C-alpha cells in the first residue's frame, strides 16, 4: 500500500478548493439575513473531514473531480446543518461550536432552524447541476447522501441518542447508535467519492469497510476527547456528554479500553485499504491516522 504523501500539503490544496466552492455556492443574498446565518454555520470552520474523505476516495479511483467537489460541498452542508440543529435548545442545547457561538445563540432559534433547513436543501441542489455530472451519477450521489442523513442514518442516530439520555447502554447498542449518528455520513463520504469513479464490487466493499471503521473510530476518539480535553482545545463545550449523562464509549468501556478500540478500528481501516486493489490510497490511509491521533 503506497503511503508516500505530504498529507498536509495535499489536504490544504483540497480544503482550499472546498472552501472556494462553498463560498461560491452558499448564497449571501438569501432573504432576511438567512444567507448570513447559513454562511456563518458552514464557512471558515471545522475539520472538513467528510470532504477530504470524498476527494481522497475519488482520487484513489481516478474519478470525476467535478462530481467529487460537488459531493464534498454537499456532504459538508449536510454535516453543518446537522450541527446547527443539534446545538439548539430542543436538542443538545450547546452554545459553542467550532470555537465560536452556535448559530442559534448568534441569530436566534427560528433563524437557526431555517438556516439548517436551507443548507440541507442546498446540498441536494449542488449535487444536481444542469451539466457537468451525468444524471445517473447525480441520482446515485443523491441517494447515498439522503440515506446517510435520514432515518436510517444521522437523524435516526440522533433520535436514539436523545431517547437514551440517562440510560446505560450495552456496547452493541451504543455502536449501532453511533454507526447511524456519526458513522453513516462518514461512510457516505467515502462511498460518494468512490461513486465518482468506477469501482469494482470488491473495491466498493473494501472502501465501505474502511468507511465504517473510520466512522466508528471518529466517534470513539470524540468520546475520549470530550472527557480529556478542555473546551478551548476542542472548539466546543467539553464534558457535555458526561454532564448530560449520555452514554459514550468512555462510560461504557472505560478510558483505556476506548483508546485501544480506536487503535483496533484504525487497523481494520488500513487492512481494508490493503484489500481494495487500489494502487494509491495514501491519502485515505493518512486520514485514518489523523482521525485516531487527533487532539480536537
UniProtKB/TrEMBL annotation:
Transmembrane segments: none annotated. GO terms for cellular component: cytoplasm. Gene3D superfamilies: Farnesyl Diphosphate Synthase. Pfam families: polyprenyl_synt (PF00348). SUPFAM superfamilies: Terpenoid synthases. It is an enzyme of class 2 (transferase). Signal peptide: none annotated. GO terms for biological process: terpenoid biosynthetic process. GO terms for molecular function: (2E,6E)-farnesyl diphosphate synthase activity; metal ion binding. CDD domains: Trans_IPPS_HT (cd00685). Its EC number is 2.5.1.10. Keywords: Isoprene biosynthesis, Magnesium, Metal-binding, Transferase. Belongs to the FPP/GGPP synthase family. NCBIfam families: FPPsyn. This is Geranyltranstransferase. It comes from Rubrivivax gelatinosus (strain NBRC 100245 / IL144).
Amino acid at each position: 500500500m503506497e503511503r508516500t504523501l505530504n498529507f498536509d500539503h495535499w489536504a490544504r490544496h483540497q480544503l482550499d478548493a472546498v472552501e472556494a466552492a462553498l463560498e461560491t455556492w452558499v448564497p449571501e443574498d438569501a432573504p432576511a439575513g438567512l444567507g448570513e446565518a447559513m454562511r456563518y454555520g458552514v464557512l471558515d470552520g471545522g475539520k472538513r473531514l467528510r470532504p477530504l474523505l470524498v476527494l481522497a476516495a475519488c482520487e484513489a479511483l481516478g474519478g470525476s473531480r467535478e462530481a467529487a467537489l460537488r459531493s464534498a460541498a454537499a456532504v459538508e452542508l449536510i454535516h453543518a446543518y446537522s450541527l446547527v440543529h443539534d446545538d439548539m435548545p430542543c436538542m443538545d442545547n450547546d452554545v459553542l461550536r467550532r470555537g465560536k457561538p452556535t448559530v442559534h445563540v448568534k441569530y436566534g432559534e427560528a433563524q437557526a432552524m431555517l438556516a439548517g433547513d436551507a443548507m440541507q436543501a442546498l446540498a441536494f441542489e449542488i449535487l444536481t447541476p444542469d451539466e457537468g455530472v451525468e444524471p445517473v451519477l447525480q441520482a446515485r450521489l443523491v441517494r447515498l447522501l439522503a440515506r446517510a442523513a435520514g432515518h436510517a442514518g444521522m437523524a435516526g442516530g440522533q433520535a436514539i441518542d436523545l431517547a437514551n439520555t440517562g440510560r446505560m447502554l450495552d456496547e452493541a447498542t451504543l455502536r449501532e447508535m453511533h454507526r447511524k449518528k456519526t458513522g453513516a455520513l462518514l461512510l457516505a463520504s467515502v462511498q460518494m467519492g468512490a461513486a465518482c469513479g468506477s469501482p469494482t464490487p470488491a473495491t466498493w466493499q473494501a472502501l465501505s469497510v474502511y468507511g465504517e471503521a473510520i466512522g466508528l473510530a471518529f466517534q470513539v476518539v470524540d468520546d475520549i476527547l470530550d472527557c480529556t480535553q478542555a473546551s478551548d482545545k476542542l472548539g466546543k463545550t467539553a464534558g457535555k456528554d458526561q454532564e448530560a449523562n449520555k452514554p459514550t464509549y468512555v462510560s461504557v468501556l472505560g478510558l483505556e479500553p476506548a483508546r485501544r478500540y480506536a487503535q483496533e478500528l484504525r487497523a481494520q481501516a488500513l487492512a481494508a485499504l490493503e484489500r481494495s486493489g487500489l494502487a494509491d490510497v495514501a491519502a485515505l490511509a493518512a486520514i485514518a491516522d489523523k482521525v485516531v491521533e487527533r487532539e480536537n
